[in-house]
Amino acid sequence: MQKSLSERDQAVIWHPYTQMQTAPAPVGIVRGEGALLFDEAGTPYLDATSSWWVNIHGHSHPYITEKLAEQARQLHHCIFAGYTHEPAVQLAERLLPVLPGRQQKVFYSDNGSTAVEVAMKMAIQYWHNKGEKRNRLLAFRNAYHGDTFGAMSVSARSVFTRAFDDYLFKVSFIDLPTEENIDQLLQEVDTLAPDTAAFIFEPLVQGAGGMVMYEAPLLDKLLQHCRQRNILLIADEIMTGFGRTGTSFAMDQVTAPPDIITLSKGLTGGTMAMGITTCTDEIYTAFLSSDKLKTLFHGHSFTANPLTCAVALASLELFQQPACRQNRERVAARHRQFAVELAYQEDVKNVRTLGTILAFEIETGEADSYINDLSGFLHAFFREKRIMLRPLGNTLYILPPYCITDTQLDEVYASILDMLRAYGEKWN
Ligand SMILES: *Cc1c(COP(=O)(O)O)cnc(C)c1O
To answer: Fewest C-beta in 10 Å: which of 35, 147, 305, 329?
Structure first.
């Protein structure tokens, strides 16, 4: 008998964020189409979380596939120091004008975490180049900016970082803004401002921190205050970019312009790994000098890979078509409708939506073990239903590709109501 993909995997693969001793065998996926992924037996799985928040136009989109093949016949890779190529230039030309806050330059890397590393280096070296000593970084409590050491440092200390906490650099963390704490936050910023280089934040929603949403006007107030104190603003739009929160970028919902933006995930429509860090002319020109020491010494082997640039361009084209906006608005409206129904259910709290994201928490006992049991239950439940949902602790969220159909959305919503019934019977 031929071994299944899942069996062969277990012999040779170490999966991310996975306790390999206890995790169930992974499902082998062979093909994708729209919001569906198919396993070896041809069974469809409905992708309700956009394959780790990256997919926006659906799996194996024919237009993206075509553009990838076209580029593959032309040029696969080219060193990006001293050389350049059409897809990299064209992507930058098309992307910069649609970004918030007068972004003037694109710096390519190859995933979200590296885009964050580049952003932090730009901000820190900006002050260094200007001869001003500003060594402090500011971030939100409960933030997530990636898994490399710099990105971990500006993220919440958590079970993810525990083994490394001694090796992470010091960062000042502040609370998310609320009506109650905003004045106090502004005071905290005043105290920290003199040696703060930059403030890095996930605009409007903290993703990995549990899809925690907060108000645009309050964020705006905080950001404007930081700007007045010369703190650079790094908007981490890795999860929120490309339409996820209702507008093209989350920063379109505030007036404060970011100095630096990080992008990844939806950037290539969820097809290939790419990170982008953009900045204003003000940042860029601080690195221009006859003094070599003012150079941004950073790069990756696959910087601006032509194939990746080509799919990012294709994805951007699709993103700018009216059909994409219509789909996003349709999904957002359906979410808002379902949120009303969901709020009436037992064991459900904090139902919230933002653009194409819907999230809520399941009431649990206080103990961690309770939450662990719940997590196992949820994973098993949705896997059996062939719906790809991946809870964050007791937070359940839907974050689908924009092309998900109404029927498919109905299926996801119904499975959540079924889950709540099963949960009620099991625990109450
Ligand atoms: C996913 C994510 C990152 C890290 O991106 P990777 O490509 O996984 O390294 C950084 N910031 C935010 C807001 C994210 O959601």
So the answer is: 329
